[in-house]
Design brief:
Blueprint: H1 4-19, H2 28-35, H3 37-44, H4 47-52, H5 59-82, H6 95-98, H7 101-112, H8 124-139, H9 144-156, H10 158-170, H11 190-202, H12 208-256, H13 258-262, H14 266-269, H15 277-307
Helix pairs in contact: 2-12, 3-12, 5-7, 5-8, 5-15, 8-12, 9-11, 9-12, 9-15, 10-15, 12-15
């Protein structure tokens, strides 16, 4: 016997198709690309995206981003397994090729150690994203393809660019440790696999009303990601402000330190109390700005992995 959700889906679709047998929205993959252009651009225009290209990534910020990504994929793949036989998702069920949870667990252990589950934190916006994934998987499984499409095809596109940048900037091991998330061992050609995925997705039988709901859900997926970025930005701003309040004291201590005096212009400045304030303020402002760029850029990785599609 068919699960209730599957039977309800097929009965509903059959009823709508009797009323209208012609789709006016075209292929789902093309419709998704078209309808998400605006929110896609919104994500690309974030500070994260613009600054990531400069390669300003610190290891701590990279670890924070990857932690949020772990929670998202844990929820996504739990719901994918729940709905792997649902007619609105089964054609795009590629666990061995696409699923990232196991790879992320390897990365988490590399970055945080064996007790990583007790260390990583799930911010509020990420919790809301996770809650939406569970809602869709349990109550509206016909929409799950929207989340799968936006995440996995992003991983196979912009995510591969990020892999190269992160390896170069963070100087991670050549063996690939810490980069398992970006490594798809079962996908020999990303371009060909994405073509296959789009073809399978377009083959899913659905009514116009369901397709419209999927398109709306894809936009929600982008906006959920933007919310995650915005919260991380607030965390960055807060941290930068705290550091900014501490930096003047640190600089003062540095002037009194023999090591600092021997390695910088403070030896001369300490002899002229009236002239040392201006250089100190300039240095403090520069340090705060530089630190802020570094903190912000790390979070761009998540944005780029989700929002960049290969043509």
């Amino acid at each position: 016997a068919l699960p209730i959700s599957t039977k309800r889906y097929r009965d509903s679709m059959a009823s709508e198709q009797r009323q209208s047998s012609t789709s006016v929205l075209g292929d789902l993959s093309e419709a998704l690309k078209e309808v998400s252009k605006e929110v896609h651009q919104q994500a690309e225009d974030t500070t994260f995206m613009r600054n990531f290209q400069k390669g300003l990534i610190s290891l701590d910020e990279f670890k924070m981003v990857m932690s949020s990504i772990y929670f998202i994929y844990e929820a996504l793949e739990e719901e994918i397994e729940r709905n792997k036989d649902h007619p609105a998702f089964a054609p795009v069920y590629f666990p061995s090729e696409l699923h990232r949870k196991v790879a992320l667990e390897q990365d988490m252990e590399y970055f945080f150690g064996p007790q990583w589950r007790d260390i990583i934190h799930c911010p509020v916006a990420t919790q809301q994203y996770v809650a939406r994934l569970h809602h869709v998987g349990q109550r509206e499984p016909e929409l799950l393809v929207a989340h799968s499409y936006t995440r996995y095809l992003g991983d196979l596109s912009g995510g591969q660019v990020l892999k190269k940048v992160a390896n170069k900037t963070l100087e991670l091991p050549a063996s690939g440790e810490g980069m398992a998330f970006y490594t798809f061992d079962r996908v020999s050609s990303a371009t060909k696999f994405k073509q296959l995925y789009r073809s399978r997705m377009n083959s899913i039988e659905m009514s116009n009303s369901i397709k419209t709901r999927i398109l709306e859900e894809a936009k929600k997926a982008f906006l959920l990601n933007v919310a995650v970025f915005e919260e991380l930005q607030e965390m960055v701003d807060s941290q930068a402000q705290k550091i900014g309040r501490l930096l003047p004291e640190n600089h003062a201590s540095r002037k009194r330190s023999p090591v600092a005096t021997l390695n910088g212009p403070s030896m001369t400045a300490s002899r002229h109390e009236n002239t040392q304030e201006a250089p100190r303020k300039t240095t403090t402002t520069t340090d705060i700005a530089l630190l802020r760029w570094i903190l912000v850029a790390g979070f761009a990785m998540m944005a780029l992995a989700v929002c960049v599609y290969a043509m």
